[in-house]
Amino acid sequence: MSGRWLSDIEGLVAEARARGARLKRLERGDAPAWKTEFRFRQRVREVEMRVAQVLAPELLAFEITGKAAEGTLRLELLPLSPAHCRLTVTSEIRARSLAARLFLQSLKLARAGLNRRYREKVALGAALLTARAVALRDLQ
User: Fold this and answer.
1) Are 56 and 4 in contact (CB under 8 A)?
2) Residue ranges of the alpha helices (H) in the chain?
3) Which InterPro entries does the entry link to (predicted)?
4) Interacting residues of 128 by C-beta distance below 8 A, sequence separation 6+
5) Model pTM above 0.85
6) pLDDT per residue over 79-117, tens digit each?
7) Residue 84's domain spans which residues?
8) Cα dist from 110 to 95, 104, 119, whole Å
9) pLDDT at 3
10) Beta-carbon contacts of residue 47 (< 8 Å; ≥ 6 apart)
11) Of 69, 79, 75, nearest to 51 (Cα)?
12) Cα distance between residue 140 and residue 5, in whole Å
């Protein structure tokens, strides 16, 4: 299965919007960037996402910056056969303030529950990406 759909950034943005994400395109520099918000622990958080690296068809990386924290998100495809590939999702978050360090420390204490929810969300995202790849393949 080809990973061309991973480098179709505008298609991914359109799909995210169709699923309820609020993304505002930012006109900064060469790389596509968006401002988005999400709810976490009863507060609305606002972050900026910028495409950091695209190596079509196997890698898509984002840099994410918020008031208190910053991080990276990497989606990598490893071909296993012509019809199958493995998706690896790697995320990293770094504190930008003392309050954020304390917040991240509290997340470490709740790691087991967060890891379970993270795995569930990544699995759901992978299923959506797989469905998108199959639909694009069937159109060809």
Assistant:
1) yes
2) 9-18, 98-109, 111-139
3) START-like_dom_sf (IPR023393)
4) 15
5) no
6) 888 878 888 999 999 999 998 999 889 888 888 888 899
7) 4-139
8) 17, 10, 14
9) 52
10) 35, 36, 37, 38, 64, 65, 66
11) 75
12) 13
Confidence of residue 48 (pLDDT cuts 50, 70, 90): very high
| CATH number of the domain where residue 42 is located | 3.30.530
Alpha-carbon span 87 to 41, nearest angstrom: 28
Structure tokens at 61: 């990386």
Beta bridge pairs of residue 1: none
Give the pair of three-digit tokens for residue 82.
């012509």
Nearest to 123 by CA among 88, 73, 83, 82: 88
d(CA 129, CA 81): 18
Structure token pair of residue 117: 């929810």
Question: Into how many domains does the chain fold?
Answer: 1
123 and 109 in contact (C-beta within 8 Å)?
Answer: no
**In this structure, which amino acid lies at residue 19?**
R
